[in-house]
């Protein structure tokens, strides 16, 4: 069964699904600005504070593939509605948490239901907008939400923390969930994969444990890359993921059909998506720390300081979307990361007493333009030509790439920051100067990853424009 609603209904469907994407993405960052207040009120240790963020993105990323298959087999609208309800309940639990353990568990439960909700939403978008110009517009809107959601989370978190309480950074999700459930009930059309559908139990276990071990291993890197725990968990994660690939190549109903990721274009898009996730979740966190800790901004002002990048993305995406049929996605995928890298390099020159408008704003503008160039074609490339039977799995892979990339990026950037700040502090400079050196190191590392994304696009995003960007009313050709 395939969703094929009338044109007007399709745009209402897009509005509901875009709201879902916003909730899922902003929840990775909305608590960032609130963490100092939550840590003080609940008596969190520094390790518990880190896991308030990590618990969400780790569970989310590790279970997305299973969530995608559940959406395919059980019904995408049904999975969407159940995910919404569970996400709202988990958010309410977190907002009422009385200690660190309850808050971390609540964040993990949010990630669990987001892993069901997000791929269902993206799969519904894929089957609702099968091809043509409307598909490009729909994915551009979805890309804007995905790209700006992190910044919106920082801004909203600042507003709620300053004028209410950190608890409302979680409780506000209940409002979004109610709106999403009402819209979903009226405008979403059920669809599911046809045929004999079986769950890949062993694939689910190996990929969840593998990704979890990998991310946890990277989170331990701050102790030292050579520590036995870091090496052990990283090695275990790699081994389990290798076993997962072996299982997927042999089972009849794989959790992730290898045809989804082994095609050069789609595989390249997934890798680039992971890099973008690492920058959005990892690098923006340290920019926020610079605003509050070094520059002394209040939570609200720190949130507003991030808006520049969001505004640039919102302005640039519609312009680039109109130009996409003429210039094609490949050029944007190559140039976009380079512009983003230039913005990150500019940010690396921040100083403890620097002016925001001189040292930060130009870098955010460049970063926003570069990210907009990626958001316009990226998700479309990752899903173009995927068979309807695999829509949920492919959608889950897109989201998993972002979350796992963000988890790994946050862990790696934390280790880089800690080492750079420690070395600077040992030289006798002031504490704020040492912090700033650590943030600068993170921005340089982020710039290097974006350059790597551009190189991946050069070698992997290839093909005729009709294959990379299907037009008209014909179904998108299968690339794999």
Tell me about this structure.
InterPro entries: MFS, MFS_dom, MFS_trans_sf, Sugar_transporter_CS. Its main location: membrane. This is MFS transporter. It is found in: Cell membrane. This protein has 480 residues and is mainly alpha-helical. Helix content is 79%, strand content 0%. Helix 1 packs antiparallel against helix 5 and helix 6 runs antiparallel to helix 12. The longest helix has 41 residues. The two termini are 22 Å apart.
* Distance from first to last alpha carbon: 22 Å
Number of domains: 2
- Could you tell me the number of beta strands? 0
Task: Determine the CATH topology of the largest domain.
Answer: Growth Hormone, Chain: A
Structure annotation, total helices: 18
User: What are the low-pLDDT stretches, counting only 5+ consecutive residues below 50?
Assistant: 471-480
- What are the secondary-structure elements, in order, as H or E? HHHHHHHHHHHHHHHHHH
């Amino acid at each position: 069964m395939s969703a094929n609603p009338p044109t007007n209904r399709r745009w209402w469907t897009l509005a509901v699904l875009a709201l879902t994407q916003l909730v899922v993405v902003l929840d990775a960052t909305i608590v960032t600005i609130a963490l100092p207040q939550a840590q003080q009120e609940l008596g969190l240790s520094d390790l518990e504070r880190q896991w308030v963020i990590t618990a969400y993105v780790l569970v989310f990323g590790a279970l997305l593939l299973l969530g995608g298959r559940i959406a395919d087999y059980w019904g995408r609208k049904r999975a969407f509605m159940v995910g919404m309800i569970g996400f709202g309940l988990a958010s309410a639990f977190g907002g009422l948490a009385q200690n660190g353990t309850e808050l971390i568990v609540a964040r993990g439960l949010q990630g669990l239901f987001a892993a069901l909700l997000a791929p269902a939403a993206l799969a519904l978008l894929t089957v609702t907008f099968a091809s043509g110009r409307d598909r490009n517009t729909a994915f551009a809107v979805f890309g804007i939400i995905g790209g700006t959601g992190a910044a919106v989370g920082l801004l909203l978190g600042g507003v709620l923390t300053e004028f209410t309480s950190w608890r409302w950074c979680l409780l506000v999700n209940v409002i979004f969930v109610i709106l999403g459930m009402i819209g979903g009930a009226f405008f979403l059309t059920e669809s599911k994969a046809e045929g004999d559908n079986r769950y890949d139990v062993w694939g689910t276990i190996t990929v969840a444990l593998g990704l979890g071990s990998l991310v946890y291993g990277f989170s331990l890197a701050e102790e030292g890359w050579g520590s036995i725990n870091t090496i052990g968990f990283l090695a275990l994660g790699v081994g389990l993921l290798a076993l997962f690939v072996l299982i997927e190549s042999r089972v009849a109903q794989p959790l992730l059909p290898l045809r989804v990721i082994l095609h050069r274009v789609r595989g390249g898009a997934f890798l680039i998506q992971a890099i973008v996730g690492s920058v959005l979740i990892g690098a923006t966190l340290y920019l926020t720390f610079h605003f509050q800790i070094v520059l002394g901004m209040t939570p609200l002002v720190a949130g507003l300081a991030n808006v520049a990048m969001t505004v640039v993305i919102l302005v640039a995406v519609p312009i680039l979307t109109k130009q996409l049929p003429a210039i094609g996605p490949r050029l944007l995928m190559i140039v976009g990361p380079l512009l983003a890298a230039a913005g990150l390099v500019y940010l690396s020159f921040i100083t403890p007493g620097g002016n925001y408008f001189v040292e930060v704003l130009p870098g955010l503008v460049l970063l926003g333009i570069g990210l907009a160039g990626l958001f316009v074609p990226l998700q479309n490339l990752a899903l173009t030509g995927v068979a309807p039977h695999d829509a949920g799995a492919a959608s889950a892979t897109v989201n998993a790439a972002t979350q796992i990339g963000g988890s790994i990026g946050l862990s790696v950037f934390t280790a880089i920051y800690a080492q750079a700040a420690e070395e600077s502090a040992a030289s006798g400079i002031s504490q704020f100067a040492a912090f700033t050196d650590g943030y600068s190191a993170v921005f340089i590392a982020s710039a290097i990853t974006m350059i790597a994304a551009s190189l991946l696009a050069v070698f992997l995003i290839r093909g005729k424009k009709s294959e990379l960007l299907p037009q008209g009313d014909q179904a998108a050709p299968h690339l794999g």
